[in-house]
Amino acid sequence: SFDTAYASKAWMIHGVNPDKVKYHFVVVPGTTPQAMQTLATEFATATPYDILKQTDSLHVVRYNPASLTSYVFFTSNNNVNTGYVKSVSAVSMAGVRESGDTLTVTVNSPDMNITTETAFNYYWLANPRTVSMVLNGNWDVLENPSNVGITNQGTTLTASFNLEHGFSKTIKLVKHVDELSRRDSVPVMMNKMEQSTDKARQFNIFPNPAGSQIEIVFTAANAGAAVRKILTMHGAVLQSDKIQVNKGRNHASLNVSGLVPGTYILLITGGTVQEKGIFVKY
């Protein structure tokens, strides 16, 4: 039996004998005419993406709402230096997603390194390909389900992806923070914050740095409801819940085991409570 599939075709008019002419287009899967009209209206004022590189050997586009930078490498390139990618060793596609202090890097070999076995074969054979990518920055490995090879040079990290049959491989990294910096930086930040607040108020986060749980001590002029939030240093909300505040001294525990290692902001707001603190998760 055979299944029926419906497909659409589109083509671009390049003009006659174009020479170094550039353009870009957007593909939106699973959409509707109404949604496309809305998108066209939005595009009339601004696009949600930036084209970072557009050359014969390299295309790089950043999709800002998702903090995702996508790369198409048509050849090896020792001078990428766009986003976090410094260089790449072979033809490949890659996506680098930023989230707080983490990077999720996914690499694929879309042409599958295909070769013809003999001149008489009408089919192609896929071959393994190793793609080594050098990333700027000092990174630690957070997740490595694909067993990507890692070499950390301190100021750069080299990830070697063994790719085959069109399957992607992914690694998740986190910014390296040495223990001495963790313990030294937080008290300085907290001291500056405490100096700018009323001495009659109390707001403490401990232990700091923390592993799986933090304790929060603060005072409130009156009882009531408040909102407690954990944010990245860029302001993205990671956790939010409502709490009841007592008049006077309050003590609460908060589970932070789900956070990746990094530096975070804790906010408690509502009624007479307006508190902000910084803590480090290791």
Short description:
The protein has 282 residues and is mainly beta. 10% of the residues lie in helices and 44% in strands.
Strand order of the largest sheet: 1-2-3-5-6-11-8
Radius of gyration: 25 Å
Query: Quick one: overall form?
Result: globular
Strand content: 35-45%
Describe this structure in words.
A 7-stranded antiparallel sheet has the order 1-2-3-5-6-11-8, with no helix packed on it. It starts with 32 loop residues before the first helix and ends with a strand. The chain contains 2 helices and 18 strands. The relative contact order is 0.10. Strand 5 and strand 6 form a beta hairpin. With 282 residues, it is mainly beta.
What keyword list fits this structure?
single chain, mainly beta, 2 helices, globular
Topology:
Blueprint: H1 33-43, E1 49-54, E2 58-63, E3 68-73, E4 85-88, E5 92-99, E6 102-108, E7 129-136, E8 139-143, E9 149-152, E10 156-163, E11 169-175, H2 179-195, E12 203-206, E13 213-220, E14 224-232, E15 237-245, E16 248-255, E17 262-270, E18 273-281
Antiparallel strand pairs: 1-2, 2-3, 3-5, 4-7, 5-6, 6-11, 7-10, 8-11, 9-10, 12-13, 13-16, 14-15, 14-17, 17-18
